């Protein structure tokens, strides 16, 4: 099973967000919800509406939802884009911790190069919709990143800004 890592809706409590009421998935008993809320450090906020949670707390709910689905592959599209640096690092630490302990594969799109370098085993650089590089993180140098992010005057509009995609493979047992 593959699950997309995504923010939660705003009209439910944090604990109800784990129940997947809008999706036809049968889950374990209610205690499982509490365990997942505890795992991501939100048990004390489980009764609060998600629209009253901070961005980092909402991302933690999203990680708990991912855990409830018992996914093998996680697609995390800019999971820390709207967070301050401290909260972003906390969310990345939690996400990678979960990925390691569950031996999951994660494909994570980031524009924060320092986080991509720190967490990714392999980095994929995309520029103007084309592959700029795809190699182990330790083989991606400053020159690669400078070339990826350099701007060149052009009359054409380029699709999206460049991004670096860190990936992690499941740990070998």
UniProtKB/TrEMBL annotation:
Statement: the UniProt record of this protein carries the keyword Nucleotide-binding: yes
Region (Disordered): 152-173
InterPro entries in the record: ABC_transporter-like_ATP-bd, ABC_transporter-like_CS, ABC_transpr_LolD-like, P-loop_NTPase
Pfam families, A to Z: ABC_tran
MF annotations from Gene Ontology: ATP binding
Entry superkingdom: Bacteria
Residues of the ABC transporter domain: 36-81
Keywords from the named record: ATP-binding, Nucleotide-binding
Protein name: ATP-binding cassette domain-containing protein
């Amino acid at each position: 099973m593959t699950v997309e890592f995504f923010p939660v809706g705003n009209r439910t409590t944090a604990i109800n967000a784990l129940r997947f009421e809008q999706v036809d998935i049968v889950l374990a008993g209610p205690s499982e919800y509490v365990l997942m809320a505890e795992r991501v450090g939100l048990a004390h906020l489980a009764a609060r509406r998600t629209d009253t949670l901070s961005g980092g707390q909402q991302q933690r709910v999203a990680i708990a939802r991912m855990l409830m689905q018992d996914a093998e592959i996680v697609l995390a599209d800019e999971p820390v884009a709207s967070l301050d640096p401290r909260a972003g690092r906390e969310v990345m630490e939690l996400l990678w911790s979960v990925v390691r302990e569950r031996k999951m594969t994660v494909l994570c799109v980031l524009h924060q190069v320092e986080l991509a370098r720190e967490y990714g085993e392999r980095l994929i650089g995309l520029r103007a919709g084309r592959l700029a590089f795809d190699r182990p993180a330790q083989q991606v140098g400053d020159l690669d990143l400078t070339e990826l992010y350099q701007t060149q005057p052009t009359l054409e509009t380029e699709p999206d800004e460049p991004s670096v995609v860190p990936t992690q493979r499941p740990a070998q047992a």
